[in-house]
Amino acid sequence: MQLAERASHGATKSGYLYKFRPHAESSLWANTWEVRYVILRGQEQELTYYRSERDVAYPPRGQISLQGTYVDMEGLKRRRFWTFRVVDRQGVDLVRLSTEVQSDYHAWVEALERAGCKRVRAIKSKIHFNLKFVAHLCLAAL
């Protein structure tokens, strides 16, 4: 069994996605999208990402707990990238990911939902997210 297969054993979903990195070191003012190997473990409610499949033997570049998070479906960006992000209850971005394949976009969003993320569509800002979240809580209390 290959290393990547062992690392993703028991994973809900795994594969390559573009990860957004605002103001990356390569350019002080530019935002960058970097290819990352992403593993979603639904049972553990955890999303981890690595530089590549070969790097799964080492600690991940990032690890996100999905407990109490939301998946924001941004949709098609720049007529090429199907983009979504995972945010916390305050609307703070935990990770922003994209793929060039629409069916992969929907598969990842559905896998994140099964792992416990609640789906929201196109949150414009943290303030807008907070208003939607408060309204959701108010309706749930009724």
Write a compact overview of the structure shown:
The chain is an alpha+beta fold. The protein has helices spanning 3-7, 102-114, 126-141; strands at residues 13-21, 32-41, 46-50, 62-65, 70-77, 81-87, 93-99, 118-121.
- Please state the average pLDDT score: 83
For the biggest sheet, the summary is: 8 strands, mixed
Distance between the termini: 52 Å
**Lateral strand order in the biggest sheet:** 4-3-2-1-7-6-5-8
Radius of gyration: 16 Å
Which outline best applies?
Answer: globular
Number of domains: 1
Percent of sequence in beta strands: 35-45%
What structural class do you assign from the helix and strand content?
alpha+beta
Regions with little confidence, pLDDT below 50 for 5+ residues? none
CATH topology: PH-domain like
What's the architecture, going by CATH? Roll
CATH top level assignment: Mainly Beta
Oligomer: single chain
- CATH superfamily label: Pleckstrin-homology domain (PH domain)/Phosphotyrosine-binding domain (PTB)
Order of helices and strands: HEEEEEEEHEH
Helix percentage range: 10-25%
